[in-house]
Design a protein that fits this description.
Layout (H helix, E strand, L loop, with lengths): L3 E5 L24 H10 L2 E8 L12 H17 L5 E5 L22 H10 L7 E4 L2 H10 L2 E5 L17 E3 L2 H12 L13
Parallel strand pairs: 1-2, 1-4, 2-3, 4-5, 5-6
Helix pairs in contact: 1-5
């Protein structure tokens, strides 16, 4: 049986938003995130981070710094939620970057769905049974294009609000705890066609 997953944007969704941060000491889970992750994991969802990390391409920190970020975040989730992140994927590229090898377009940078598709291949994930939860509409577009259900956690990070069919969330909520409640409510009522839902 294929797995189902919760794909999580990192900054502003899972952890408090500190732009271009690669300092583990500044990584804190958003309020209620530990409880939400525990509930989702107990319902059988894989917990997979998918994060744009253009700070590498921009020269703000080396790609090697992301290993410490990942290790710290995994430890934080284990300590505060009592569960494990089962995947951590990131895109270090950006077309406007300045670091050779990283300054380019790529299929993994959200809003493209490359990271989700990679995770699905490597982890045997059924994307139609999975969710993308993020703080900006690029997250929603990546999730939609991958074939996932989507939730926008509106923390005021999105500023452009350019809505199109690919960028329309299934739900707009205030935090990850509300998102978990919604996912679990839908999970308990299997058979609902979320792809016919309008934004709430």
């Amino acid at each position: 049986m294929r797995k189902k997953a919760i794909f999580l944007d990192k900054d502003g969704t899972l952890i408090t938003n500190v732009p271009y941060n690669a300092d583990p000491n500044q990584i804190l889970l958003c309020p209620g995130a530990g409880k939400a992750l525990r509930q989702l994991a107990e319902a059988g969802y894989e917990l997979v981070v998918v994060s744009n990390q253009s700070g590498v391409a921009r020269g703000y920190y080396p790609e090697t710094a992301l290993r410490k970020v990942e290790d710290h975040l995994r430890g934080l989730v284990r300590t505060e939620a009592g569960v494990d992140l089962t995947g951590f994927f990131y895109c270090p590229h950006h077309p406007d970057g300045c670091v050779p090898g990283y300054s380019r377009e790529c299929p993994c940078r959200k809003p493209k769905p490359g990271m989700l598709l990679q995770a699905a291949r490597e982890m045997d994930i059924d994307l139609r049974q999975s969710w993308m939860i993020g703080a900006v509409l690029d997250d929603i577009e990546a999730g939609r294009r991958a074939g996932c259900h989507t939730i926008l956690v509106n923390q005021g990070i999105e500023t452009e609000w350019c809505i199109s069919p690919d960028r329309q969330p299934h739900f707009i909520l205030s935090n990850l705890e509300q998102a978990a409640h919604t996912v679990l409510s839908v999970w308990l009522h299997q058979g609902i066609d979320l792809f016919s839902y309008e934004v709430e």
